[in-house]
Amino acid sequence: MDSIFILTGAGISAESGLGTFRDKDGLWTRYDLSRVATPEGFRADPALVHDFYNMRRKNCLDAAPNAAHAALARLGRDHPGEVTLVTQNVDDLHERAGSTGVIHMHGELRRALCAACGHRWPAPERMRSEDACPSCGRPATRPDIVWFGEMPYRMDEILERLARATLFVVIGSSGEVYPAAGFVDEAAAQGIPTLEINLEPSGRRGLFDRGLYGPATEVVPRWVAGLLRD
């Protein structure tokens, strides 16, 4: 049975108005990542971190899925084999487009996590450092986001699914952030065909068997249509 493993990055959401990690004028360039995207930063100034993610959460809520998200939802629905969709993104545009079973390896903006007891729950639009955990009651609420220095979620499951793939595809990612950057090496070592779909070739293009380039809203629907033989 065909088993397609897809890894998506910020580039798939860029046309929905959510900037990529390396945008010259993007959100990330205006903040010191050590202060807003590390456990140490959160301990030092939780209010600043919450303000940052409250802004990102609002941006996410104001955005809408685009044609690339819709095409992947269609692939998951109509492909006769298995489709595993893993995303490095913390937005929920895949789900709002109709994809199910999405694996968010870096967490989700619309989820909250208790740093004290590990309980998770749906995040309100605005979170505060004094918010109490609904399970243990301690004021240790943080965004359910994997920060620098933390282990991505569900890695054992991700690697297990990758091992049984018959096609590995990266969409909208520079392929420079580990451990996700190593997935193409894992696939190649196991003889799994690899495909890069990006706006332009990434710095790791030479590791892929094939590449398709252009806006995600044009290239991804065309690729999906070819797979489903429209």
Automatic annotation (TrEMBL):
Its EC number is 2.3.1.286. InterPro entries: DHS-like_NAD/FAD-binding_dom, NAD-dep_sirtuin_deacylases, Sirtuin, Sirtuin_cat_small_dom_sf, Sirtuin_class_III, Ssirtuin_cat_dom. NAD(+) binds at residues 9-28, 88-91, 172-174, 198-200, 216. Binds 1 zinc ion per subunit. Substrate binds at Y53, R56. It is found in: Cytoplasm. Residues 1-230 form the Deacetylase sirtuin-type domain. The active site is at H106 (proton acceptor). Zn(2+) binds at C114, C117, C133, C136. Keywords: Cytoplasm, Hydrolase, Metal-binding, NAD, Transferase, Zinc. Transmembrane segments: none annotated. One of its GO terms (molecular function) is NAD+ binding. Its cofactor is Zn(2+). GO terms for cellular component: cytoplasm. It catalyses: N(6)-acetyl-L-lysyl-[protein] + NAD(+) + H2O = 2''-O-acetyl-ADP-D-ribose + nicotinamide + L-lysyl-[protein]; N(6)-succinyl-L-lysyl-[protein] + NAD(+) + H2O = 2''-O-succinyl-ADP-D-ribose + nicotinamide + L-lysyl-[protein]. It is an enzyme of class 2 (transferase). Belongs to the sirtuin family. Class III subfamily. NAD-dependent lysine deacetylase and desuccinylase that specifically removes acetyl and succinyl groups on target proteins. Modulates the activities of several proteins which are inactive in their acylated form. 2 residues (Tyr-53 and Arg-56) present in a large hydrophobic pocket are probably involved in substrate specificity. They are important for desuccinylation activity, but dispensable for deacetylation activity. This is NAD-dependent protein deacylase. It comes from Cereibacter sphaeroides (strain ATCC 17023 / DSM 158 / JCM 6121 / CCUG 31486 / LMG 2827 / NBRC 12203 / NCIMB 8253 / ATH 2.4.1.).
